[in-house]
Amino acid sequence: MTPLELYGRRLVAGDITEDEMQAKVVDTLQELHLALKELKLRPKSPLFQRFGFFKKKEFIGTPRGLYIHGPPGRGKSMLMDLFFETAPISPRQRVHVHAFMQEVHQRLHQLRTGKNRKSNDDPLMQLSQEIARESRLLCFDEFQVEAIADAMIIRRLFENLLDLGVTVVATSNTAPVNLYAGGLQRERFLPFIDLIFNRLEILTLEGKTDYRRNRLRTVGIWHMPTGKKANEELNSAFKRLTDGCMAEPKTLTVQGRSLFVPRQARGVATFSFSDLCEQPLGAADYNVIACLYQTIIISNIPALTGKDRNVVKRFSILIETLYEQRTKIVCSADTSPDELYTEGEGAELFKRVVSRLDEMQAEDYLAEAHRPAASKVSN
């Protein structure tokens, strides 16, 4: 199946709505799909391999990748998902840029300090070659550059990967010219923007409809009381927000510890309140969750009492972290936000959490782009 065929099926099934701007992007994704299907490996000469000639250009006819940008909720991630699902080459990888760059830094450190490292080795080129062997297609969702450590190496890394025949497809809320805007030493980052324009095709997806906000408005944000009906509503919300995509669990590693995600797909993850707040989790864990997922569904939030001091503290940190990164929420709870915690230590400070929860249900918040900050995460 091709992206165009899969998109057509979902239109017929009513999973998505006909959108002229999306259709144009699908046509380009279809062209890339067909080009990848015809991609041929360059015949390799043992003599050239032995002396290291043409190490960087292992493929010929590699098609230009894509950089798709536009406001949030227009369907960028959904379109990339169907492209990735139908891509005719392997191995391939769909990654969140922050998780990818964190792994890059970890692997570079290992290469620089490893026993077998030679003084004349280029660790970044070595890593690029390893990544190229692992993935002939790299799809980045929510592409953004915020950390100076990423900005300083990303041009060379991507240039190496493109030279090695890796096809790159990225979606972003940010136009290329605005990447790393206001960042430290941005002048050293500007060649990467030139690289994007020179090596990738730039597409803008800016339809009038914010589908994500409309769906969140439709499914509702705060469901109460907890119970069978609320659980059914949360399950329905998950299906709506992921276009009925097959969900699966995922285990993340945060600062050397495992963090289990019970169900996730297409930037949406589900947790129970117990999963998030009755376990020994902290700010680093919540930051990773807020970074990787655009929407978090939280079930069975109880009415809290003074005996729940530690749980209240974790919940407060969780909501503040999600709010700061503009992660959207859908919840089921025993009661309304302003009645969750009214007596006990910190009850007065908890009013800030109530204010956040109220704001996170407002139209202005739903319309804002997800803005994940860099996190220490591997997966």
Explain what you see:
The protein is α/β, with parallel strands linked by helices and 379 residues long. The chain folds into two domains: 3-204, Rossmann fold (3-Layer(aba) Sandwich); 211-367, Rossmann fold (3-Layer(aba) Sandwich), CATH 3.40.50. The protein is 44% helix and 17% strand. It is built from 16 helices and 13 strands. The protein has helices at residues 3-13, 20-37, 46-51, 76-86, 97-113, 123-134, 148-151, 154-163, 190-199, 211-219, 228-241, 273-277, 283-292, 309-324, 350-359, 363-367; strands spanning 40-41, 59-60, 65-69, 92-96, 137-141, 167-172, 200-204, 222-223, 248-254, 257-265, 268-272, 295-301, 328-333. The strands form three sheets. Strands 8-13-12-11-10-9 form a six-stranded mixed beta sheet, with helices on both faces. Strands 4-5-6-3-7 form a five-stranded parallel beta sheet. Strand 10 (257-265) and strand 11 form a beta hairpin. Helix 8 packs parallel to helix 9 (190-199) and helix 10 runs antiparallel to helix 11 (228-241). It is globular. It starts with a helix and ends in a 12-residue tail after the last helix.
